[in-house]
Specification:
Elements (H helix, E strand, L loop, with lengths): L1 H22 L17 E4 L13 E2 L6 E12 L3 E6 L13 E7 L2 E3 L5 E4 L3 E2 L2 E13 L20 E5 L5
Antiparallel strand pairs: 1-3, 2-3, 3-9, 4-7, 4-10, 5-6, 5-9, 8-9
């Protein structure tokens, strides 16, 4: 009889461990949330609440030798100007080839890597200036090398810009 009791106890202990183990297989989900308040400058899409994710450049004609995209950018600022800098050179690659002659401009002024560009705001808004500027991206397709693979494929890269309020003179 002691053997039966020991066997039942062992069976119950196994079921208990199985239950604890099953309860330990929970799923943890994480979402990182951020918010930024800046009383001197706000940059967004024209709707005033979002920013761009992934955008596709379009071929300028059927030869597909150059590609471009124009994106409207809304800038609200307390000052009548702001600075924007190309924080890293625009490089679009497919792993073998790279798009050439990348030119990025804002309000028809070319951005160069590391050099801040001061952009004038001329449209008055609530509490400051509120204006939409055209961000224009132009790149040339790579040239196929004589012995290299085809230039066909998907090219990608990151456009990283830094928008800053202009310093206030003392």
């Amino acid at each position: 009889m002691n053997f039966k009791v020991a066997l039942i106890a062992l069976g119950l202990a196994g079921a208990l461990v199985g239950t604890v183990q099953a309860a330990d297989e929970s799923i943890s989900k994480k979402i990182t949330l951020t918010a930024q308040i800046n009383d001197g400058l706000f940059v967004s899409k024209p709707d005033g609440s979002t920013w761009y994710g992934t955008e596709e450049l379009t071929a300028n004609n059927y030869t597909q030798t150059s590609f471009s995209k124009t994106l409207p950018v809304r800038v609200w600022s307390t000052a009548d100007d702001f600075n924007v800098t190309l924080a890293q050179p625009l490089k679009m690659s497919n792993g073998t080839y790279e798009m050439a002659n990348a030119v990025v401009s804002l309000s028809e002024q070319a951005l160069t890597f590391g050099s801040p560009l001061t952009v004038e705001q001329t449209v008055a808004g609530v509490g400051g200036y509120d204006q939409i500027h055209d961000l224009v991206i132009n790149v040339d397709a790579p040239t196929k090398s004589a012995t290299g693979p085809s230039t066909n494929g998907s090219y990608s890269g990151d456009l990283v810009m830094l928008f800053e309020p202009t310093p206030v003179a003392p």
